[in-house]
Design a protein that fits this description.
CATH architecture of the largest domain in chain A: Alpha-Beta Complex
CATH class of the largest domain in chain A: Alpha Beta
Structural class of chain A: alpha/beta
Oligomer: homodimer
Radius of gyration of chain A: 20 Å
CATH superfamily of the largest domain in chain A: Medium-chain alcohol dehydrogenases, catalytic domain
Helix content of chain A: 25-40%
Shape of chain A: globular
Distance between the termini of chain A: 14 Å
Largest sheet of chain A: 7 strands, mixed
Largest interface: A-B, 31 and 31 residues
Chain lengths: 331, 331
Amino acid sequence: MNSVNHQIRLAARPSGLPKPSDWKLTAEPVPAPGRGEFVVAISYLSIDPVMRRLIDADYREPVAIGAVMEAGAVGRVTASEHPGFAVGEHVYGGFGVQEFACSDGTGVTRLDPLLAPLTAYLGALGIPGLTAYFGLLEVGRLREGETVLVSGAAGGVGSVAGQIAKISRCRAIGIAGGPDKCRWIVQDLRFDAAIDYKAQDVAAALQEYAPGGVDVFLDNVGGEILDAVLSRLARGARIVLSGGLSQYAAQQVRGPSNYLELIAARASMAGFLTPDYTGRYAQARTELAGWLREGRLISREDTLQGGVRAFPDALLKLFAGQNIGKLILAV
Amino acid sequence: MNSVNHQIRLAARPSGLPKPSDWKLTAEPVPAPGRGEFVVAISYLSIDPVMRRLIDADYREPVAIGAVMEAGAVGRVTASEHPGFAVGEHVYGGFGVQEFACSDGTGVTRLDPLLAPLTAYLGALGIPGLTAYFGLLEVGRLREGETVLVSGAAGGVGSVAGQIAKISRCRAIGIAGGPDKCRWIVQDLRFDAAIDYKAQDVAAALQEYAPGGVDVFLDNVGGEILDAVLSRLARGARIVLSGGLSQYAAQQVRGPSNYLELIAARASMAGFLTPDYTGRYAQARTELAGWLREGRLISREDTLQGGVRAFPDALLKLFAGQNIGKLILAV
């Protein structure tokens, strides 16, 4: 077993997208677990849009300069002094961008590797899948027969959200960038329609694909796309905000100038954070895993190689919109 | 009785605030009621922020060029061929900016002049009061003990909203422009605090007056004020949009750039239109009239003289923020 723990730490607060010099690669001995702790060898790291927000000075609890970058990850317990976690078990937790993590079990869940491949626990069975699940079904109060729109539709959250909409007997329309992503969500994921925001006028396309207006919009992109959708709301529409990828690295956030359309449409725009539903993760995972097994839900992960050293590039790849499916870094 | 009906018609679509040449004064004979119709002599016209939106080309059903400008009004029936409305009765309806209107009764309600002065039916017992009532109690789901913030707090909607918040045992904070308005809402209307947005930093003032954050914000102003409030939301906050006065005449609407704060606060922003609650107006009016009688609710109207000719100036006065209380034009 490797005895060195490589880590990526925040070296400086970036303006815009982080440069290589905003990160620092460090090496430490692999920690030994104290009483009530265990050590995890990390297998896969989740690369998420919100990571950009986590390192902003004005974020509520930003990652400190010099601290290991925060990240959700799956791995295997390699040493344990904790009664609840045994060596060899697979776990998910906020272990950070490093090769080994020491944990007291807070926020850590045990995974069943027989139910689905480990990477699915960062995708459809992980925070992205749970975000789609609670965002649409709870915050969005999705009802059968409605028209559902998702942005970032080929990404981790969006790809699952559109499929949950179809499973819920709704019409699913996805917004994604480029023909490959659009083809994938329609042909493989069975969305009813895809809008390529790089090639099409989103408002005009919605007029065609959703002539009665959009009932539920799960948005993790924001910016011009959100503005276009605001002009195409059905009466009583619900916009669910799970993020704002397009605005995270912006110097000046672009507020939705069409927000007064919420009045005419008697619509709402609501934000939420997935961890508020922690108590219901198990129930939701069971349902999502059932759909996966039945082949009604496809979890696609775009897994990069290169270990923690490749993290800075992996994050830039996410913001360049180069991934199809949930972006993951193999450690 | 006067036999000429003076009217204000839309002559051109304004850019920004309407100029005198965007309106046209016309004179017609007073109409005679057809079968199933009645004629109303208009006493008072309601001057409302939304009037600016009604004349925008991109509004859903804008006032047509050459048409009488839309306006809510109270008046008295002077001639009737309608079984439901008798000569002498006092009524409220969307009669338009004119001295006499012919109506088939659609959207017209009978008023009780003994319950309150007629002008109150354009204020606390009219659309402004009903907007405050349904906006806070229904859309905002106000609960006892919460902190309520209203913008345009010395205006028709805001002044009633803050008082309903106090009646509902909530903490009421008002945002208004200038010391006179701020003094009035605190001393006469018993708001807990007032923020003068012309002299104070709204976000900093909220930190002082609402240290635990804002639970419900009834906003009819938008712009920078909405952005400031977004940074001071309590968890689970509800922003209720009843208008966007500051943006109605803007060339480029300023979207709320802090909208992603809705995520961190698990908050929502919802729009509504008061006429959706028409079926419950009577119940709400009874409750509002009860509060008026008991002296717990003050309806203040700022009544301009000058008849329909004075309408163009009256509208500009509203956008200049010169009124305290509901702005009304006596005909």
